[in-house]
Amino acid sequence: MTADRGNAPTPASVEAQVRDERTAAWLGLALGVTFSVCFATGLLSHLIQDPPGWFTWPPRPAGLYRITQGTHVVTGFASIPLLLAKLWVVHPKLFAWPPVRSVAHGLERLALVPLVGGGLFLLLSGTLNVARWYPWSFFFPRAHYWAAWITLGALAIHVGAKAATTRRALGAARGTAPGAEGDGRARRAFLGAVAATSGLLAVGHAGGTVGWLSPLSAFAQRRPHQGPQDLPVNKTARSARVLSSARDPGYRLVVEGGRRRLELSLDDLREREQHEAELPIACVEGWSASARWRGVRLRDLLDEAGTPAGAEVEVQSLQQGGLYRASLVNHRQARDPDTLLALQLDGERLHLDHGYPLRLIGPNRPGVQQTKWVHRLVIR
Amino acid sequence: MNGRQAVDAAEAPGRSRRLGPVVGAVVGVPVLGYGIWGLLRDHALTHPPDAVTWIVGSAVVNDLVLLPLLGVVGWVATRPLPAGARPTVRLGLAISAVLALVAWPQAADLGDSQRGNPTVLPRDELAGLLAYLAVVWLVVGLLLLRRARRPAGTTVSDRGGGG
Question: Around Cβ A202, how many Cβ atoms within 10 Å?
Fold first, then answer.
């Protein structure tokens, strides 16, 4: 162990250097960036899954969603050390006396409750979602979504209240801000350690979607090519309770809502023109993996059924319950040449857990919308 | 904000000091209100009492339990060390605590990860956590070693490391 040195910085003086406005300002700035990225990508994911009338998510670029959602999850994890460090730096202020100096100051402090609580909640609930642990009664995506708005509002209030202080702290002479002690090296070392921890957590999860990082990603929810037919599974046939219905020899795909109603057996589908596409499964939980799919183009079936231009399609699963038993394919996605009703994966018959006998696979769609065990298309 | 910072704030340019909070409130309050409205509107899914308990509880647990605990553990654990080594070791402890906290639900297998779907969380996360911690403490050890070998009269922070 090291010998003590006469002029070494004492922990107390190091702490005073680190716990100053400039450190808080840098961490605040970093959090502003990471939370904005998370909010934008999260809002996008929400719009894609629950699209209002004015929003049409395009099918191209095919891999855009895997990038935005991978970024959402990795940035969220990278935010954890930033937020905890920021809260540690400003922690003594929590106990400042008097607690409230004016009405404005009181409101500013009140806004810290949704800011701190909301920020921590977003990161905590996101982390537990990736760990698949739900020790609460609410539906994670919806509570996470509304908490994001609450946090964003509180963040705007906070940024406004602290704008002048932050500008001054960051604009101060390099290394020394007003109120800071020492020459700022301890602060830089502290911020470096925070950044390194963020980097570790980012690498720890990024391998779920960035294949070459997978061996280093200790905490990624998936290995991109581990699973039946070298592809991870989100919901198994057993948990969807389709084990017998999916293997029913009397299986038929029904296409209705067009000028003609179609009822097609698996042989009927195999006899139609087949098309191949390399497309990713991109999960909202941040992992993604590409595979080669082969099947019938959705637009060919829609044409055969006499579908009017601009129609949407609801794709229904054999799955009887659950929020994701059906998905909507908008008119642009429906006309994309790579939107398939797949019969094969990487040259083999679809595995039951990947949606045998028939699954939807389309470019630039969240995994939960790549409906498996498809048995009905409703044109509307 | 403490007294000294209050004085500093008073010295900030007057206009922006007044404008910032107003702009922040004008933008932030409606957005915050929209979030609360949405949380209440979707009550069947969001279960507001539970969600609010988790939101407020996160702040309370962090501020009144986690951070004080981290401070006490860091102080106690580094007491026997030379004063100059303490900041580096405390940072190592803090980083370890954050990594352990984030990895804990996976490492302790608290989720429904493996139940019927071996493709979910297929790794040994506890081994992964230990490997990450080993890297952290290797770096901490190297920084302490570098500091110990340095001629008397210089500090870790003189070379921008440790801290």
Answer: 19
Chain B interface, mutation test: which of A77, A86, A105, A197, most B Cβ atoms within 10 Å?
Answer: A197
Sign of CA dihedral A56, A58, A59, A65: negative
Do A49 and A368 touch, CB atoms closer than 8 A? yes
Render pLDDT for A238-257 as a digit per residue (tens, 0 to 9): 999 999 999 999 999 999 99
User: Does A160 touch chain B if contact means CB atoms closer than 8 Å?
Assistant: yes
Q: Do B27 and A156 touch (CB under 8 A)?
A: yes
The torsion region of residue B88 among left (phi > 0), alpha (psi -120 to 50) and beta comes to alpha
Phi-psi region of A232 (alpha: psi -120 to 50; beta: other; left: phi over 0): beta
Token pair in block for residue B146: 């570098």
Instruction: Give contacts of B 36-95 with A, CB under 8 A.
Output: 36, 38-39, 42, 45-47, 50-51, 54-60, 62-63, 67, 70, 78, 81-87, 90-91, 94-95
Q: Tokens standing for A14? A: 């190091």
ipTM comes to 0.91
Question: What is the reported pLDDT for A314?
Answer: 98
Q: Say how far apart CA A196 and CA B136 lie, in whole Å.
A: 10
How would DSSP label each residue in A229-281? GG---SS-TTTTT-TTGGG-TT--EEEESSSS-EEE-HHHHHHSPEEEEEEEE
* Band of pLDDT at residue B10, cut at 50, 70 and 90: very low
Question: Amino acid letter at B107?
Answer: A
Say yes or no: A197 contacts chain B, CB-CB below 8 A. yes
Nearest CA distance, B7 vs chain A (angstrom): 11
**pLDDT tens figures, A32-52:** 999 999 999 999 999 999 999
Task: Measure Cα distances from A15 to A124, B84, B91, B111 in Å.
Answer: 27, 13, 11, 37
- In this prediction the pTM is 0.91
Tell me which chain A residues have a C-beta less than 8 angstroms from the C-beta of B6: 101
A154 at B interface, C-beta within 8 A: yes
| Among the partner residues A18, A135, A157, nearest to B29 by beta-carbon distance | A157
- Count contacts between A and B (CB, < 8 Å): 314
